[in-house]
Amino acid sequence: MGLVVTIFVNYKEERSMDWTAVTVITSSEAVEAVSYLLTDEGAQGIQIDDAADFAHLQSGKYGRYGEIIDPEEIPHRKQGAAVTGYFPKKTFVPEIVPTITTKVAKLKDYGLNPGENKVSAALVNNEEWATVWQKYYHPLRVTNELTIVPQWEDYTPEQDSEKLLYLDPGMAFGTGTHPTTRLMLQALEQVIRGGESLIDVGTGSGVLSIAAKQLGAGQVAAYDVDDVAVQSAKKNLALNPVASDVRLGVNSLLDGIHTQVDVIVANILAEIIVPLIPQAYDNLKPGGRFLISGIIDDKASLIRQELAEQDFIIDSETKMKDWHGIIAHKPAEEEA
């Protein structure tokens, strides 16, 4: 997620119309789930303003011309998060607002804090959203080696080892600053040594595939259940020549995939990770690594149990805010 990130998945197709913005005031931990709910109701884009994104942001060269900016001087929320879904003007909003309110409230049944769950709607002129978010999304170092750079920014690496991931957040989910994405980027940095084959499940913006290639991975395949997401990832991959050979496809998890690779990564919600676990086991080579995140506190024990029942061995578990990231591996032949 980004500082204030607007994600329009059909930007070129929809740029001529005005929008109805439906905003949900929620908690930082529920940002991804609320984004999914709004998209399921027909939102063509998502804007996220999350106070958690500023918690550890230091002063740095965030300006367009390299000027030093104090994060405290950037307008932002002081607590919680606001997730806005942008709906075509023709959408009958009075009908979907109660539905969204009910669905967000039920997130507590899945161990997520729905927060204030205040839902509001307003008309938005097309010109307002087209560029305003660019003022808030700037280069950000997310691991020791990886830096997320919006494609319109000129950025010079501060160290020779720094690897740049160019993204256009106007096209896809996943700008690299949400804890779940950062946990996966850190895990990739630990695991990738060079030449590994990898599958990215639920690729979203394609950020994990791009990172894997920047870190030296070999053959990479990326899948998402949504064709719009796949097309968005394709545009982001094109911004990063190192990822030009990533194979993209529309697929539900690993259904119908029968190939064994060195690494499988998935940054998706815990409920979706559960059915992925046996599929990942089948599609990993002996000794292959399984990197997962999107696991909220209350679901961590469930995922550990499911991994153990499938004979995965957990190598490490890290936590950022209320989210967990796990690196596990399929036993090598000598471990069997």
TrEMBL record:
<dbReference type="GO" id="GO:0005840">
    <property type="term" value="C:ribosome"/>
</dbReference>
<feature type="binding site">
    <location>
        <position position="267"/>
    </location>
    <ligand>
        <name>S-adenosyl-L-methionine</name>
    </ligand>
</feature>
<dbReference type="InterPro" id="IPR004498">
    <property type="entry name" value="Ribosomal_PrmA_MeTrfase"/>
</dbReference>
<dbReference type="GO" id="GO:0008276">
    <property type="term" value="F:protein methyltransferase activity"/>
</dbReference>
<dbReference type="Pfam" id="PF06325">
    <property type="entry name" value="PrmA"/>
</dbReference>
<dbReference type="GO" id="GO:0005737">
    <property type="term" value="C:cytoplasm"/>
</dbReference>
<comment type="similarity">
    <text>Belongs to the methyltransferase superfamily. PrmA family.</text>
</comment>
<feature type="binding site">
    <location>
        <position position="224"/>
    </location>
    <ligand>
        <name>S-adenosyl-L-methionine</name>
    </ligand>
</feature>
<protein>
    <recommendedName>
        <fullName>Ribosomal protein L11 methyltransferase</fullName>
        <ecNumber>2.1.1.-</ecNumber>
    </recommendedName>
</protein>
<keyword id="KW-0963">Cytoplasm</keyword>
<keyword id="KW-0687">Ribonucleoprotein</keyword>
<comment type="function">
    <text>Methylates ribosomal protein L11.</text>
</comment>
<keyword id="KW-0949">S-adenosyl-L-methionine</keyword>
<dbReference type="InterPro" id="IPR050078">
    <property type="entry name" value="Ribosomal_L11_MeTrfase_PrmA"/>
</dbReference>
<keyword id="KW-0489">Methyltransferase</keyword>
<keyword id="KW-0808">Transferase</keyword>
<keyword id="KW-0689">Ribosomal protein</keyword>
<feature type="binding site">
    <location>
        <position position="202"/>
    </location>
    <ligand>
        <name>S-adenosyl-L-methionine</name>
    </ligand>
</feature>
<feature type="binding site">
    <location>
        <position position="181"/>
    </location>
    <ligand>
        <name>S-adenosyl-L-methionine</name>
    </ligand>
</feature>
<dbReference type="InterPro" id="IPR029063">
    <property type="entry name" value="SAM-dependent_MTases_sf"/>
</dbReference>
<dbReference type="GO" id="GO:0032259">
    <property type="term" value="P:methylation"/>
</dbReference>
